[in-house]
Amino acid sequence: MQLADVKPTSVTMVSVLPACAQLATLQQGKFIHQTVIRYGFESHVSVGTALMDMYAKCGSVEIARRVFDRMPQRNAISWTAMIAGYAQNGCSNDALVVFHQMQLANMTPDSGSIVSVLRACSLLGALWKGKCIHAYVIRSGMAEDVNVGNSLVSMYAKCVSIDVALQFFDNMPKRDVVSWNAIIAGYSQNGQAYEALRLFQQMQRDKMKPDLTTMVSVLPACAHLAALQQGKLIHGHILRNGLEMDVSTGNALIDMYAKCGRLEIARSLFEKMPKRDVVSWNVMILGYGLHGRSKDAISLFSQLEQTGMKPDDITFICILSACSHAGLVDEGRKYFNSLNRDHCITPRMEHYICVVDLLGRAGYLDEAQELINNMPFEPDASVWGALLGACRIHCNIELAEYVAKHHLKLESNNTGCYVLLSNIYAAAGRWQDAAKVRTMIKTKGLKKNPGRSWIEIKNSVHTFVGGDKSHPQSEKIYAVLDSLIRDMKKEGYVHDKTFVLQDVEEEEKENIISTHSEKLAIAFGLLETSPGMPIQITKNLRVCGDCHNASKFISKIAKREIVLRDINRFHHFKDGVCSCGDYW
């Protein structure tokens, strides 16, 4: 057009600027802006709005705001573009301010404005403001708009009001695939993986065809539950339906397979990805760390640096965690020290937590405490919790009391801290102190998270708690377990009753520890799977020392590989040996 010496019009500008926005070609967009000025189109509302949208989508929200402020006239679309620009660039407070200014200017917000401002509320976790906007939606008659409804579902879910999100979702007069994605992602992000999978299955029953966003939303639920078969079904659905495998989906699949114990499949997918981002490298490094394959994690980190792609702050959390699982203290120190020096990344709380965990597990309790004392910001409850966990491993009661005091100052109702301190006392035989702490838990009305283990058999997840007899096959499960324990004792197994943290008779201690949830899940796995097949179980807490030892004996006696994922890492038991080398 320019070569033909044809003069552009305002319509030309409005047509070409969205292309720059879509391609994020900022320099080309700036050139067109100069053309707009040269031909005097700046005063046109539609052109100004298109310029704002282009700058915001190219990440230059400050320039977008300058264009907005200079507009002689604005309409609802202009205001919506500015609100959306702020929300898309993470400037959520600014988005809320502009929305308020829009109302003061007697400009009626449309559905686009509402969708954008609800996104800002979601990012801020501003539930009260979100509720106010919901009330406005009802008053203005926009409640039946499906896009507004989807944004409300997402807002409530991200503001940790998942029950309200589900109630609104259930009452939506019309739902599309985005509606289902919002509620599934909400449950998955709120740690309610069972419900996320249930909704995904309901979505299929309702004949709503999932898209790639659905897959990225539901795969983390499979990863959380170690629901490998369900994850494989979703992978198969992606392949069968010819859905284009983008980077986000590939990352979600890698993460799912790694957390479901299939590290080789995860690595194979990683190698086959035509394009990777830093998240791809992060999930693979994290996967190696979870499985205790820290040397592979370090090797992959080196490969990442060789590609020229810059590791981000999450990459260092992954590699520090990998070092912690293997006790690689010197390597961990090296990575931590390189954060600011070599990569211009300011260490944040999560990095300090990883290093405290690394030092604490390895027995460097004084160094870990010194690191906390010298942090450039106030330590939070999580970093004290990492040191308290190390005190349990190394039976350091004096330091545990000091750490628990600081932890509870920050989170006085943290059940985990009380339980951990009580367990430290119990392991040392200080039953009265343990009882006092447990009394405090009851007095405060707190509830201990019971230990649970689960196993996936034929696409169904079976969950067990200690001493559980609620399963339909309990009689057979206990018969298998009794037979196992007899065979294990012949091989030299002895119950480690120090892991019974209750002041009861010795015989009762043996009964309690014999029926821990891990052992019940393994027995059920032996009962329901063919000889020679691997057994994989997941535990919501750290596996106890006795169950860890028992799993080694069972793997040898039953000639099975047992894969156990606890809250911290994977344990691969084979021929009487664990992959962790008894360091966990």
Structure write-up:
The protein is mainly alpha-helical and 584 residues long. Helix content is 66%, strand content 5%. Strands 2-1-3-4-5-6 form a six-stranded mixed beta sheet, with helices on one face. The longest helix is centred in the last third of the chain and has 17 residues, at 474-490. The protein is elongated and about 95 Å long.
Feature tags:
elongated; mainly alpha; 584 residues; six-stranded mixed β-sheet; 6 strands; 30 helices; single chain
Task: Summarize the SSE layout with pairings.
Blueprint: H1 10-23, H2 26-38, H3 45-57, H4 61-70, H5 76-88, H6 92-104, H7 111-124, H8 127-140, H9 146-158, H10 162-171, H11 177-189, H12 193-205, H13 212-225, H14 228-240, H15 247-259, H16 263-272, H17 278-290, H18 294-307, H19 313-326, H20 329-343, H21 349-361, H22 365-373, H23 381-393, H24 397-410, H25 415-427, H26 431-443, E1 452-457, E2 460-465, H27 474-490, H28 506-514, H29 517-528, E3 535-539, H30 545-557, E4 562-565, E5 570-574, E6 577-578
Helix pairs in contact: 1-2, 1-3, 2-3, 3-4, 3-5, 4-5, 5-6, 5-7, 6-7, 7-8, 7-9, 8-9, 9-10, 9-11, 10-11, 11-12, 11-13, 12-13, 13-14, 13-15, 15-16, 15-17, 16-17, 17-18, 17-19, 18-19, 19-20, 19-21, 20-21, 21-22, 21-23, 22-23, 23-24, 23-25, 24-25, 25-26, 27-29
Q: What order do the strands of the largest sheet run in, or round the barrel if closed?
A: 2-1-3-4-5-6
Largest sheet: 6 strands, mixed
Q: If you compute it from the alpha carbons, what radius of gyration comes out, rounded to the nearest whole angstrom?
A: 28 Å
Number of helices: 30
What proportion of the residues form beta strands (DSSP E)?
under 5%
